[in-house]
């Protein structure tokens, strides 16, 4: 595992198997320098189990950087449950997962991610206290996707200002790939601000609902990435910006809710070379984890959470301005900023090894 291409000095990687429930999962802790490793749990059917490990490693690193840039007292972690999980085994699987989280003793705090909902987290919460995304007491908690979507919309407003020269999203053409929790909420945010929507999802019922509700234009799931729009918003799974797909992208900017949108660094460089602005995913989609952290630590009211999410606009502006000033791609600017926050925290704990291989720039 130490030779895995996505291994980045991760502190701990746990493979979980529970025969009684049928649970098979991987929990990856990238860094706890800033606090407990916070990050969601996703449920996905991996035809190749090796891709589950790749996901856990890459997503947990992204969470370290996301939480660092968001100013949270959390490190980065992620869990993946290997599906499919039959409906009649779902409770047993998530309770067993809760037991696995509990055995980590608070080093990892879990929450919802792709394929996992509030009801699943409540099952996890029956077995461990190291979980968030459960309730809405005091207006904070529950489904984090509306907060994620709000952060993505704010980042789009920053991109509209700095790239499109627009002071609002009125009339801006946005293609949204994926209409799950984040994508659907993003469509609402954008529609309310006058954006023109093009949407696609593999679930046609979702497409019909969004088109009816927001007068969106329908696109094919296989080709929406190549729509001629102002902003492309990948909001499904990651790895969609590749060396094969980037040459066909016709948007002026890529700003989406999906994690790990860049398959590799080369894809990010290709976007930059084509003068397509890429707003780093872990910078713009931090709204959900901001809410999750507030619920877990009990630190904020809803107003406080929303105020923290609003800061995504300023941070996106900062990254874009720094990119323009230095000539470095935005994803490397953000990597450097996040790695610096983590390393500063690590230096306060002598003896902890550096974990980041983020590239430096001048």
From TrEMBL:
UniProt: NAD(+) binding residues: 178-183
Keyword Secreted: no
EC class of the enzyme, as a word: oxidoreductase
PANTHER family: LEUCINE DEHYDROGENASE (PTHR42722), VALINE DEHYDROGENASE (PTHR42722:SF1)
Catalytic residue positions: 78
Pfam family, one: ELFV_dehydrog_N
SMART domains (UniProt xref): ELFV_dehydrog
Keywords (A to Z) from UniProt: NAD, Nucleotide-binding, Oxidoreductase
InterPro entries linked: Aminoacid_DH-like_N_sf, Glu/Leu/Phe/Val/Trp_DH, Glu/Leu/Phe/Val/Trp_DH_C, Glu/Leu/Phe/Val/Trp_DH_dimer, Glu/Phe/Leu/Val/Trp_DH_bac/arc, NAD(P)-bd_dom_sf
One MF annotation (Gene Ontology) recorded for this entry: nucleotide binding
Enzyme Commission (EC) number: 1.4.1.9
Organism of origin: Hyphomonas neptunium (strain ATCC 15444)
Keyword Nucleotide-binding belongs to the record: yes
Residue span, Glutamate/phenylalanine/leucine/valine/L-tryptophan dehydrogenase C-terminal domain: 142-350
Domain of life: Bacteria
Designated name of the protein: Leucine dehydrogenase
GO biological process, one term: amino acid metabolic process
Family to which this protein belongs: Belongs to the Glu/Leu/Phe/Val dehydrogenases family.
């Amino acid at each position: 595992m130490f030779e895995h291409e996505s291994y980045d000095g991760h502190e701990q990687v746990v493979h979980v198997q529970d025969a009684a429930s049928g649970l098979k999962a991987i929990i990856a802790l990238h860094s706890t320098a800033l606090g407990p490793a916070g990050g969601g749990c996703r449920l996905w059917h991996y035809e190749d189990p090796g891709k589950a490990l790749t996901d856990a490693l890459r997503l947990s690193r992204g969470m370290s950087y996301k939480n660092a840039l968001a100013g949270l007292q959390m490190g980065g972690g992620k869990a993946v449950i290997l599906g499919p999980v039959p409906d009649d085994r779902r409770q047993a699987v998530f309770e067993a997962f809760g037991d696995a989280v509990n055995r980590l003793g608070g080093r990892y705090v879990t929450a919802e991610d792709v394929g996992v909902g509030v009801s699943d987290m409540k099952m996890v919460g029956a077995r461990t206290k190291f979980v968030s995304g459960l309730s809405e007491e005091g207006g904070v908690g529950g489904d984090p996707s509306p907060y994620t979507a709000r952060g993505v919309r704010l980042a789009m407003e920053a991109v509209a200002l700095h790239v499109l020269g627009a002071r609002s999203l009125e009339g801006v053409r946005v293609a949204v790939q994926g209409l799950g929790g984040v994508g659907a909420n993003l469509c609402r945010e954008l529609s309310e601000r006058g954006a023109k929507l093009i949407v696609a999802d593999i679930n046609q019922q979702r497409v019909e609902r969004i088109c009816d509700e927001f007068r969106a234009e329908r696109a094919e799931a296989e080709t929406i990435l190549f729509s001629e729009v102002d902003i492309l918003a990948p909001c499904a799974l990651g790895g969609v910006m590749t060396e094969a797909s980037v040459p066909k992208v016709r948007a002026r900017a890529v700003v989406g809710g999906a994690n790990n949108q860049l398959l590799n660094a080369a894809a990010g460089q290709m976007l930059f070379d084509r003068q397509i602005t890429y707003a780093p995913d872990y910078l713009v989609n931090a709204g959900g984890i901001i809410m999750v952290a507030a619920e877990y630590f009990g630190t904020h009211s809803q107003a406080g959470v929303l105020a923290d999410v609003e800061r995504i606009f300023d941070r996106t502006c900062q990254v874009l301005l720094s990119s323009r000033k230095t000539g470095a791609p935005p994803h490397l600017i953000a990597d450097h900023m996040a790695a610096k926050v983590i390393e500063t925290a690590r230096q306060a704990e002598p003896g902890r090894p550096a974990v980041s291989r983020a590239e430096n720039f001048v």
